[in-house]
């Protein structure tokens, strides 16, 4: 019945990693929740394996520069080593001089960004338990790739796919960094990459980026899931966002969310990388293991309820970020995070 619901000709045929091209029209189309996204540089097609009913996604990337080719093959090389339920699998690939096609797991529910958009459009919200479950899954994926000495470096809702049962899979490793033998995780990369709304403060200071940078990205995603808004405001002004990031001035969390959740966010979104929890530590947080056992004792030890409000004193020198940040960009409407 599924085949009857999908128009004839909307499949590339896939067999042993080779694609027999039956080209789709280069247009945006949507059919029963299955999306094919077309752009000038990249498209994603729904495909069916030749000898089974399995659906896969084919990411097709046009290559115009050598640096683009290096990036896409780095992504392929890294993804083909992964085997974790919360990391998107690369099944195979096909390449020519002009373009590369990567065969990936198919995720019928789109990205986490799509889920956020659908939730907003339905004038609904995500329950704290849902957000915590998503956080646990992302932390588990990060724990896995960090153990393999891989830094994602561009963690955001667009780069996390959603499949049946709200199972998350992080993807898009085009700007990832693989640490070499002997290279310190704490002093690993200084190249400015990523998306500003989810960018860790240390990147704005041209400081080293390590696993704590990915942890910061996780924190910003949790804020966005809880609030359904950009973690550091809806402004497109680069300097205004930088100013808020430099102060840890993230969007206020809904009043319906518990102080346990607020405490967890404050622990994650610490300005100093060394003060953020590791993925091992995060996965032991009661909020993420979804156990009520000893939860109260765990959080009561060091939670200061006043720290959930926007009047927290900010002890971070934002001039270290950029002397040109617009000082007129007010952060008074955002929750401040105090390193301690």
TrEMBL record:
Keywords: ATP-binding, Kinase, Nucleotide-binding, Serine/threonine-protein kinase, Transferase. Its EC number is 2.7.11.1. Signal peptide: none annotated. Pfam families: Pkinase. The keyword ATP-binding applies. It comes from the Eukaryota. Belongs to the protein kinase superfamily. NEK Ser/Thr protein kinase family. NIMA subfamily. This is non-specific serine/threonine protein kinase.
